[in-house]
Amino acid sequence: MDYSKIAPDDIVNKTADAIRKRNIAVEIVSSRSEALAFIQKIIPDGSSVFNGSSTTLNDIGYMKLLESGNHKWRNIHKEVFAENDQMKRSDLRRKALTDTDYFLSSVNAIAQSGELVACDNTGSRVGAFPFAAKKLLLIAGTNKIVPTLDDAMRRVHEYILPLEDKRMMEMYKMHTAIGKWVIVEREAIPNRTTLILVKESLGF
Description:
The protein is α/β, with parallel strands linked by helices. The chain has helices at 9-20, 32-42, 55-59, 62-68, 76-81, 86-99, 149-172; strands at residues 25-29, 48-51, 74-75, 102-105, 109-111, 116-120, 135-141, 145-146, 180-184, 193-198.
C-alpha cells in the first residue's frame, strides 16, 4: 500500500460522510492554503490556541503564522515553551490541554469507515483528543485515508514510525516509540471536533 498517495475524490467524500455520521464535522478543502484560511475563519479573535507537535501544521503554514504574531489569538504554545524549567513546562502543557479554547493537531490515519487514529510517545498530544480540549481542530491530508481500521494501525507501525524515528534522530539524536494510542470512534459532545481534510499529501 502506498501510504503517501492521496485518496481519489470518491473515497474522500465517502470517508467524510462516514466521519460526519460519528458526530464529527468535516470540511474538505483543495489545498494547504485553503486549510489555513479555514482555520483563520473558524477560530474567533481572542481565542486561546495550543497545538501538538505536527508536521502537517508546519506544512500548511500554521506554525509560521502562529510564530509571526500576525493573528488575533492568544498563543499558548509560545507561553508554554517560554518556560525553561522542564518540570514546570510539563505542568503548563498539561494545564493547557484543558484551559485552551482550541487545540490543533493532526491524525496519523483515517479509516474509510470513519475512525480517526492518532498516537504519540508520551501522550502530550493525544491527551487532548478524548475529552481534555474544549474544541478539537484536526487537519489531515487525504494521504492518511486507508480502507480499514486495521490498515490505519498498520500505517502507523509500517510507515509513520520509521519516518518519525528518522526525524527524531536527525533533530534530537534520540529514537522515538509508540506509547499512547487514541481511536476516535465517535464524538459525544456536539460541535466539539472538526476535521479539515486537505486534498494534498501532508505530513507522514
